[in-house]
Amino acid sequence: MSTFLKLLKREFKLFWGNSVLRILFIGAPLMYGILLGYVYGKGKVTDLPIIVVDEDNSSLSQKAIEMMGDNEVINIIAIKPDQTNLRTLSIKEEAACIVIFPKDFEKDVLTKRYPEVITIVNTSNVLTANYASSALQVVLGTLKVGSQLEGLRKQGVPENVRMSQYEPFRTTFIKKNNRATNYMYFLWPGILATVLQQVLLLGLALSFASEFENGTFKDLVSRTKNTFLLIMVKVIPYLIMSFGIWLIYWLFTFWFRVPFTENLGMLTLVAGVFVLSVCFIGILCSILLPNQLKATEVLMVIATPSFILSGFTWPLSQMPILIQYIASIIPLTHFLPVFRILIIEDGPAYLTYPYIINMGIIALIAFILAFIALQLKINKIKRLKITEVENQQTT
Question: What's the pLDDT score for residue 163?
């Protein structure tokens, strides 16, 4: 036990003595947490620029423009009488949408000729396109209802008849979970989990690789030849520090007023399994790639696209089968659905069991492979020592 504690102390000293690791492991979660918190702190987009082309210039088109001005999501940056230089203006002003009211719009509405209002949506940014087009659908839908009811009123149709002619059935929209459509609640935690995975992988990429590269692995093996002990000595400091990062993330929810309070205990336990699986993957790569630069590069390749592959924003079912298989070996793919179930949806814990089992399997396989690879390294050191002793005896 004393040997274990001495090795543990040595590992902490190695960590704090490496300025790159300190900045990477502590600085990155702090920086990304604060940065992303402020980036998504508003929660939803407002004042998206749109352009209105009013070729009719009637009281009805003016009413529509006024209604658009009252909508918080969109902001009219230009009203044009025609479509001259429209494309250039939209690119320059980064307009999310262009709304075109045709000539004789009001006249055609009153005479029931059903004119067409064209909305051109700029889908170069899907998020802004969705927000802006949804806001315009509300505005134009409200205008359509009001115009139809007003026309029936002018014809002298009684109110109860007007309503029955317009609304043969009711429609009800119910928002569940993230009812405010707050983008921060959705994206911010997922990115923070990605950052935690990345710093763990990059930190542990240097664990054994630095020992091999600096020639200190022999000294480490001379202190203990217990393979399990060596792996745990490298992993435990990161488990402890990851819990500290987890506490920082929890404090961020108060700082940015994110209402994540349900099922935190269960999520913390699952996060422990997640961290353990990530640690063993990092350890495995560090043993197999005994060069700090190469180990870091390989794990960067794994970690960087993991958020995209995780299915958190784009469903895994929409990805090719091969990509789904690749995504399934990344711990983040299984942790983020657990977060969504426990925190966003406030679902029961049993729904998370398949994901926890998957992370456990990843951790177990990575540990076994790391154990075998490290044992081979230790055996190699033993053989070299025996050879050295034999050479000394012969001389």
Answer: 46
294 and 369 part of one domain: yes
3-state secondary structure 113-130: CCCCCEEEECCCCHHHHH
Q: Residues, the chain, total?
A: 395
- Note the pLDDT tens digit of each residue in 100-113: 998 988 888 777 77
pLDDT tens, position by position, 218-230? 888 888 778 899 9
Residues of the chain with pLDDT under 50: 162-173
Structure tokens at 202: 């990059």
**Phi and psi at residue 121, in whole multiples of 5°?**
-100, 130
Q: Within a domain: residue 60?
A: yes
- CATH number, domain containing residue 119: 3.40.1710.10
Q: How far is CA 130 from the centre of its chain?
A: 18
172 domain residue, yes or no: no
Q: Is 49 helix (H, G, I), strand (E, B) or coil?
A: strand
Domain range for residue 280?
A: 2-40+182-394
pTM of the model: 0.69
Question: How far is Cα 256 from Cα 66, in angstroms, rounded to an integer?
Answer: 34
Report the domain count for the chain: 2
Instruction: Say which residues have a Cβ less than 8 Å from residue 88's Cβ, sequence separation at least 6.
Output: none
Which residue from 282, 267, 192 is spatially nearest to 237, judged by alpha carbons?
282
Q: Does 177 fall in a domain?
A: no
- Reported as type and span, the H/E element at residue 98 is strand 97-101
Contact 37, 252 (CB under 8 A): yes
Q: What CA–CA distances, in Å, run from 285 to 47, 233, 323?
A: 47, 16, 21
